[in-house]
Amino acid sequence: MARAAGVSQATVSLVLGEKWHGRVSEPTAEAVRAAAEQLGYRPNLAARSLRLGRTRTALLVVPALTSEFFARVYAGAARVAADNGFGVVLYPSPEGVGPAQDPFTSARAALDGVIASSMAADALAALQDGGLPLVMLDSDPADSAAAATVNPEVADGMRQIAGHLLSLGHRRLVHVAAAVDSWTFRERARSLAEAVRGVPGAVVHTEPTALEVEAARAAAERALSRPGPRPTALVCDDDLLAAGACKAARRLGLRVPEDVSVTGFDDLTLATALEPELTTVRLSAEQVGAGGMHALLTALEGRPPTSATIPVTLFPRASTAAPPPA
Amino acid sequence: MARAAGVSQATVSLVLGEKWHGRVSEPTAEAVRAAAEQLGYRPNLAARSLRLGRTRTALLVVPALTSEFFARVYAGAARVAADNGFGVVLYPSPEGVGPAQDPFTSARAALDGVIASSMAADALAALQDGGLPLVMLDSDPADSAAAATVNPEVADGMRQIAGHLLSLGHRRLVHVAAAVDSWTFRERARSLAEAVRGVPGAVVHTEPTALEVEAARAAAERALSRPGPRPTALVCDDDLLAAGACKAARRLGLRVPEDVSVTGFDDLTLATALEPELTTVRLSAEQVGAGGMHALLTALEGRPPTSATIPVTLFPRASTAAPPPA
DNA sequence: GTGAAAGCGCTAACAA
DNA sequence: TTGTTAGCGCTTTCAC
After folding, report:
1. Average confidence score pLDDT of chain A
2. In this predicted structure, what is the pLDDT of residue B100?
3. DSSP string, A44-94
């Protein structure tokens, strides 16, 4: 303790907590700081948490951190948290081996709030009885018991993709759709269908697939091999799926984008690592994470949190072009 | 408190802490468990940590979580931690904006130990005075003050890559090297140079680059355009760099692998999303993370932690072939 | 087999 | 302007 070293008792608390102005003399304050510095003293967080009843820790529930997208969501949330003296702990990915753990078994009492992605559907049940402020990410703004929702504008993103493709002249589209039952993917499908519906002669066929390159390749190959006129554009729910779609095209001897156009979603590193570079929609995952943390902090301060919406941007690159003449 | 609800006082502690055998009667224990269940009672972690002086929390220091590799390291560490009632908190990526934070300013007193990657070099200084058990990942086994080191066998991986390429007949290699000053990359360079040295007529030129696709593309393009006989194989320190190398080759009108072979390192998702699929070495990042956590837990139990070594595997795929005849 | 009591390090209210 | 004190919820002796 700096108490023995310095001069006083809990004056230390005031000084180190920056609450001493007008209550502790400047010399004393300086002495305390010097002693703390010299002893390498750090306040004990457990004691502080116990006393305060708050832990300055938020739980982030994401389906799989190994995905670049959610790693970025974490990065954004952690940055905002750190700026506010908060920490972020992750709910162990359900992907992992071992028993699916109740996020609260080990953590509930040590949390101030929860930020959850809609994709981690199975974890939501456990959150119901939490009684903690909850901010949902990329989720249905309507139905949740959340204090706030922070969503990238996925519908707008899909609308932009569709607009881009339709104005290039594409009329036979395939939606290479993530077979994941979550609001964000339903929204994308809805938005795409709506955009296509407005254009005479345009159709969209849906080909569901698991969220993996190999599964997407198989799905896209299926879609491109169906009887009837070949689709000219593959609209994928994720850059990863788009990578699979490109592989499918090449395996069938088709060129991207000359014979078939392919679009992604997210703008991961992958999008520009591929050849041709993917036309895709950038969702700023960091902003989603940061927005979620902001909303949670607001809720924690007792103010009504503002549901936010993160704009998205279409990046037209080399994987899309006008459809072949035929 | 379950105290009021149940029947007794701190008997609760014994029962819930599984320390009651032979000290509390079976009926009482059952009653406590029932009450706890019914009230949804969870022990307060802050209080427990305060009392015990331990937090069951480890810090994982990684350069950038947005990279798939380190996300996997985290996943592995978190899995092992969870199995042992531990949590893992991440050191905010130095990449992020905002002031570079001392990991201990907010966390030191709340940590039991530290796991650090060598790539987070700048953070190491701050760790020196930690006084906490430290496990290093992918770092020089010799020089560190670490209790243990957990390393994937990168030298062996590079040896396998070199062997693969040399036996295909390649003699003019380029090492597209990550311009990051860390042990793991020095080790790769050393191992590659050594393997090539054993083969008469074989040479390796080093082309340093930042760890990004676009920078790697530029570096590879430079290497392939140098005067003199063109290199026939590009050995990259990372799959991401290999993606850049492939783009460089195509931009110069060269085919992969017919005109030039390309190899990666890590076997990220990217490796099989690209075309051709990358010949690469799989480093099990999860195992590195898990091994690191195991070593830390061992150290925390007072037993001497065992430095571990994680074997790597060469995956020969479509990005390598015999060099062109000329 | 169970309860009473102390104390982990901190903060906030109050006394001096 | 500073020190004293109580108590956050838990674990752990130690009496009973």
Report:
1. 87
2. 41
3. -HHHHHHHHS---EEEEE-S-TTSHHHHHHHHHHHHHHHHTT-EEEEPPPT
Q: Is residue B180 part of a domain?
A: yes
Average pLDDT over residues A185-190: 97
Give the closest of A49, A129, A274 to B46, CB-based. A49
User: Does residue B201 share a domain with residue B175?
Assistant: yes
pLDDT at B158: 98
Q: Which two structure tokens, joined as six digits, stand for B5?
A: 């609800």
Domain count, chain B: 3
Distance in Å, residue A25 CA to nucleotide D1 C1': 7
Give me the A residues in range 106-135 that sit within 7 A (CB) of strand D. 109
Q: In angstroms, rounded to a whole number, what is the distance separating the alpha carbons of residues B323 and B260?
A: 7
B317 inside domain = no
pTM of the model: 0.91
Strand D within 7 Å of which CB atoms in B 7-66? 9-10, 12-14, 16-17, 19, 42-44, 47-48, 50-52
Do residues B291 and B275 share a domain? no
Beta-carbon separation of B269 and A272 below 8 A: no
Give the phi and the psi of residue B98 in degrees, each rounded to 5: 70, 175
Q: What is the pLDDT of residues B54-85, one digit of tens each?
A: 888 888 888 877 788 998 999 899 888 888 88
Q: Which residues of A touch B100 (CB under 8 A)?
A: none
Residue-number span of the structural domain to which A177 is assigned: 154-283
Interface test with A, best of B16, B62, B66, B73 (most A CBs within 10 A): B66
Q: Is the CB of B309 under 7 A from strand D?
A: no
